[in-house]
UniProtKB/TrEMBL annotation:
Family annotation (InterPro entries): DnaJ_domain (IPR001623), J_dom_sf (IPR036869)
UniProt-listed PROSITE patterns: DNAJ_2
Source domain of life: Bacteria
Protein name per its UniProtKB record: J domain-containing protein
Residue span(s) of domain J: 102-161
Amino acid sequence: MMGRLESWKLALERLRTAQPADWAEAGRLVAEIVRMSTDATLRQAAEQALPVLRQAADTDDHSVTLAAQRRVGVILEVVHDLTAPRFGRRNAMPMQLSSEDRARRMLGLPLAVQLTCDDINQAYRRAAKGKHPDQGGSAQAFIDLAAARDILIHPGAHKDA
């Protein structure tokens, strides 16, 4: 797949810099991208560009050719993003939160701060105002908030899920 992306990138760059631009060739290339791309973003950008490129091939209207150039630029940006080298942990799976950290997030509390029972109860009351079934919230969300409060007040009693 990466080889195909590289060849599309080269062809798009060549088409974008050509004077005058061959919009019929650009339309054929973009139609191939629509048919063969496995990336949804690239396919969507190509599908949106195809009608403009076909129109640019049939007319000499300057506004249409400008729109076609912009569409080719958008496709090229997506291809550049897909072919850019990935460093570090960008594509790594996010770290799983512990049950205590999930409870803190649910109550809107900071993750790395020592909390008192009063802090936890105040956060619970704030969060519960909008989640209570009598106030238009769902019963399950309210139960989840209560469980989060219990996890934070009695941290040793609950295992990580």
